[in-house]
Amino acid sequence: MLNYLIKRILMMALTLFLIITLTFFLMHAIPGGPFTSEKMLAPEIEAALNAKYGLDKPIWQQYLSYLQGIITFDLGPSFKYPGVRVNDLIREGLPVTAQTGFLAMLCVVALGIPLGIVAALHQNKWQDTTIMAIATMGVAIPSYVLATIALYLFALQWQLVPTFGLDSWQGYILPVLALSGFWLSFIARLSRSSLLEVLGQDYMVTARAKGLHPQTILFKHGMRNALIPIVTVLGPVVANLLTGSFVIEQIFALPGIGRHFVLSISNRDYTTIMGITIFYAAFLMLMILIVDLLYMVLDPRIKLGEKAQ
Fold this sequence. Notes:
309 residues; mainly alpha; 2 domains; 12 helices
């Protein structure tokens, strides 16, 4: 286990290094700079700003300086918010993004998996048909379309929830619905197919032939193996939800990380773009590592880091 963790951490560090390098040089390959879009900006002022942020130095010096900051967990200053660092923007937006994402994740797990189980246990019956029809629609409809329709109906037409902001608990309803819609439907479909595959295995037939209680067969023998592909998907899903959706946060005007990312693109705020990209990549790799470790809990036969004999 220790050797496996060391190898994975080294691989994560190498992957993160490549992401940092690629993101840095892609940002600097874009024509212009973070201050070239400012209106009526004198060349002397632009030169002074470039010198202040070290943008007048050779690209390799800027790269080494940025790597040095990354090592000390400093993502650099924001080019559009004087006196504000990228770490501060992430620290400011993370609670909002994490709260919304956590609620969406609860909806995905608490509703998606049970709906998939119900559909599998009532295969080809009206319960299965209804759940799969709704799940197919949820997968097919993009989240921003769902968010726009929900915003128009529930907020503008019926005025049941606020149109934007998180001043009350009602403000979380539409963002959570829009965030979880696709993944809830996807997990429901995956849960159904995974459980149906497990229920058809020989050891499940043997368990039924021995006269075991149906609940014991389902939860002790069936779900434990059926959860393995679901957990595989839940790692990236959790990372995606907890780091927010850029479009959803923009639609509902949520002051989260996604909104900062969208604004940084339009403002050509290079350090903020790179910082949020690096943060998301690191969090995603961490969630994938946690999922790999959970494999051993769900199936002790899985030995991480060992070669097949």
